[in-house]
Amino acid sequence: MKKKILFSTMLGISVMALAQVQAVWTSTCGVRHYTTFPDNYTYNQMANTIADINYGECGTRPNVTINP
Fold first, then answer.
1. What are the start-end ranges of the H helices in the chain?
2. What pTM was estimated for this model as a whole?
3. What distance in Å separates the CA atoms of residue 47 and residue 62, rounded to the nearest whole number?
4. Measuring CA to CA, which residue among 67, 68, 64 is closest to residue 7?
5. What is the DSSP letter of 62?
6. What digits encode the pLDDT tens for the residues 28-52?
7. Which run of H or of E encompasses 13?
8. Are 21 and 39 a contacting pair, CB within 8 Å?
9. To 5 degrees, how large is the angle CA 39–CA 30–CA 5?
């Protein structure tokens, strides 16, 4: 059974001084991540990257929702 997890645990996406965006999130395995993206990434690209990282780590591809 494939888990559908809503990633509303995104605690924040903030713009850093070096034109980067940092996302703080928790994988379905319970591991906390601090991921940095280039400033020109779209929310869709960030969500896909987070889903890919989670899949590689936990074996499930969740639905990622970003709350800016």
1. 43-58
2. 0.69
3. 10
4. 64
5. P
6. 999 999 999 998 999 999 999 999 9
7. strand 12-15
8. yes
9. 75
